[in-house]
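User: quick one, sequence for these tokens?
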């Protein structure tokens, strides 16, 4: 009978160990163990001193130290086991209370660390600090209003060099837009109010009061999404209601581009003003190379060769250098200015090229539409009013494509990697459509 009970107990132990091993080996429980400890602020003092919580963040190479707001005499502290003494003579009268609080710190640390690991959220010192502040009420004048968090978000991105100047400017504009929304709609922005009601009022504000079109609202909502995602990841909000917002559909708006004949006409026109002549030369050079206006600053004599120059992309530093072909006219423009191009701000160049085109006589009326949700608004403007520096890049791609040059070749010059974005630059004008139909049906 005794043998039977011993055998039964062994079977239960073996079965229990197997179950434990299954759980231990499960992916769900594969959590990296991170050590934490406690120590005294002034271990050699004769008076009570603070007990500090500590752990080391290897990825940040940072020792995290946090005040437990509990004090104890060094004589009452077990330095070997790093906790209040619970044996012997020198035991604090608050030993049980202090030990309970320290155990809670340990439990909160382990639980929160495990949650981050299982949620695949990077466990950082700042996240831990925020969590401990929240649990133990150690909030010391912490800035948590919507716009104060927004400022922390932009400050972090700027300090980490994650944004270019143009991106910094966009997010500053979004903050001003939201502040204006608050004032106009009398709608105090908080994280808890970033819900369907906010989105309805925001769209009404953008479409109605600001007269924004769908593409602008689409872009701005995308920027707000990025901020809200950051806030959720950093525990400034726990609501994901904003993810239900449906951005207005982005619509391809008709843009203008020059034909080859129009480009030749522009090149041959003599302007009386030196400043306008410089503006025309810069625009022609863009049309013949497909460059962005901002990339022109990178042209130097040292990177120009017989029939090409080497360009290092500034808009996207991750892109490889590329060779930009030069023809006689584009080379002549570079030599005219001794490879020191008379570049001005993009906005001033936009205004200058409009003046050039107006003098040349590109003043025919053109129609285009803009979209607000499901509404379309028709506009009529002079051709020159629709032209900017980016028209030159669009013109280069359109002319090259109309001449049958392979997309891969054009993209290797323009630097496009995405065919969808590249296709947006190709503008099919009326002459191209007429010639296409004639080539098929002219002998009908």
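Assistant:
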């Amino acid at each position: 009978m005794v043998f039977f009970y011993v055998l039964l107990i062994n079977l239960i132990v073996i079965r229990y160990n197997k179950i434990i091993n299954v759980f231990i080996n499960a992916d769900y429980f594969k959590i990296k163990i991170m050590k934490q400890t406690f120590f005294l602020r002034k271990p050699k003092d004769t008076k009570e001193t603070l007990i500090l919580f500590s752990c080391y963040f290897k990825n940040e190479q940072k020792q995290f130290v946090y005040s437990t707001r509990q004090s104890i005499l060094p004589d009452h502290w077990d330095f070997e086991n790093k906790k209040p003494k619970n044996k012997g003579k020198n035991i604090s009268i608050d030993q049980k209370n202090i030990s309970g609080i320290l155990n809670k710190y340990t439990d909160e640390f382990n639980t929160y660390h495990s949650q981050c690991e299982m949620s695949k959220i990077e466990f950082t010192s700042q996240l831990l600090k925020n969590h401990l502040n929240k649990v133990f009420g150690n909030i010391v004048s912490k800035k948590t209003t919507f716009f104060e968090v927004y400022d922390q978000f932009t400050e972090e991105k700027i300090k980490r060099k994650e944004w270019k100047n143009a991106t910094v400017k966009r997010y500053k504009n979004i903050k001003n837009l939201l502040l204006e929304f608050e004032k106009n709609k009398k709608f105090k922005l908080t994280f808890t109010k970033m819900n369907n009601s906010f989105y309805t009022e925001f769209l009404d504000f953008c479409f109605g009061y600001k007269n924004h079109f769908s593409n602008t609202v689409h872009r701005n909502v995308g920027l707000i999404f990025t901020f809200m995602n950051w806030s959720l990841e950093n525990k400034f909000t726990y609501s994901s209601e904003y993810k239900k917002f449906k951005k207005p559909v982005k619509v391809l708006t008709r843009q203008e581009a020059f034909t080859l004949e129009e480009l030749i006409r522009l090149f041959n026109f003599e302007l009386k003003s030196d400043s306008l002549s410089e503006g025309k030369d810069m625009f022609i050079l863009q049309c013949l190379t497909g460059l962005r206006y901002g990339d022109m600053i990178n042209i130097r004599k040292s990177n120009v060769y017989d029939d090409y120059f080497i360009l290092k992309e500034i808009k996207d530093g991750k892109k490889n250098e590329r060779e930009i072909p030069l023809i006689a006219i584009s080379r002549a423009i570079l030599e005219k200015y001794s490879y020191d191009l008379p570049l001005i701000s993009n906005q001033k160049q936009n205004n200058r090229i409009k003046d050039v085109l107006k003098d040349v006589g590109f003043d025919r009326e053109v129609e285009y539409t803009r979209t607000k949700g499901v509404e379309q608004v028709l506009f009529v403007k002079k051709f020159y009013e629709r032209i900017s520096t980016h028209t030159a890049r669009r013109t280069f791609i359109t002319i090259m494509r109309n001449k049958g040059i392979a997309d891969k070749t054009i993209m290797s010059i323009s630097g496009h990697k995405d065919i969808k974005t590249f296709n947006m630059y190709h503008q099919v004008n009326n002459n191209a459509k007429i010639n296409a139909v004639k080539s098929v049906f002219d002998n009908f």
